[in-house]
Amino acid sequence: MAHNEALAARVRMLLASHAGGSEKSMFGGVGFLLNGNLACGIHGEELMVRVAPDRTQDLLAKPHTRPLSLSGRPARGCILVKPTGLQNDKALAGWGRAGADFASTLPDKD
After folding, report:
1. How far apart are the C-alpha atoms of 104 and 2, rounded to whole Å?
2. pTM to 2 decimals?
3. Which of 57, 71, 83, 102 is the most exposed place for a label (fewest CB within 10 A)?
4. What pLDDT is stored for residue 76 in this prediction?
5. For position 73, what pLDDT does the model report?
6. Interior CA angle at 98 toward 94 and 41, to 5°?
7. In 3-state terms, what secondary structure has residue 10?
8. What are the CA-CA distances from residue 103 to residues 5, 13, 59, 63, 80 (Å)?
9. Which stretches of the chain drop beneath a pLDDT of 50?
10. What does the DSSP assignment read for 29-88?
11. C-alpha angle 70/99/20, rounded to 5°?
12. What integer pLDDT is reported at residue 18 of this predicted model?
């Protein structure tokens, strides 16, 4: 599955100021990592955001979201945000911050 490169470029710019940032091809798209931990990624046309597992249900109550399910079961701690929820930079920044904040709580993998 090809990913939305325009969205990837927006996320790339958003996370450029974070120390320890890198990119990796994963799940048929691109993942953005902080110190080796996945923060968010692009899956097709959607933004995948990694969040604290105990926040997943609360965040899924927000508009334009759905669970990430690659194997038929929802992945706890990962949500997808539809393109309609990413149309402005403020919305994208909020989701990017959520992923970066969670990734920064994890031990470095680098």
Report:
1. 28
2. 0.92
3. 71
4. 85
5. 86
6. 95
7. helix
8. 22, 17, 16, 23, 16
9. none
10. EEEEEETTEEEEEEETTEEEEE--GGGHHHHHTSTTEEE--SSSS--TTEEEE-GGG-SS
11. 110
12. 86
One-letter amino acid of 22: S
What the block records as the tokens of 60 is: 């899924």
Write down all domains in the chain, each with its CATH number in brackets.
Answer: 5-103 (3.90.1150.30)
Return the number of other C-beta atoms located less than 10 Å from residue 109's C-beta: 11
* Distance from C-alpha of 2 to C-alpha of 42, rounded to nearest angstrom: 9
CB 64 within 8 A of CB 82: yes
The token pair that represents 72 in the structure block: 């038929």
* CB-CB contact of 45 with 83 (8 Å): yes
Note the residue count of the chain. Answer: 110
Sign of CA dihedral 76, 79, 4, 100: negative
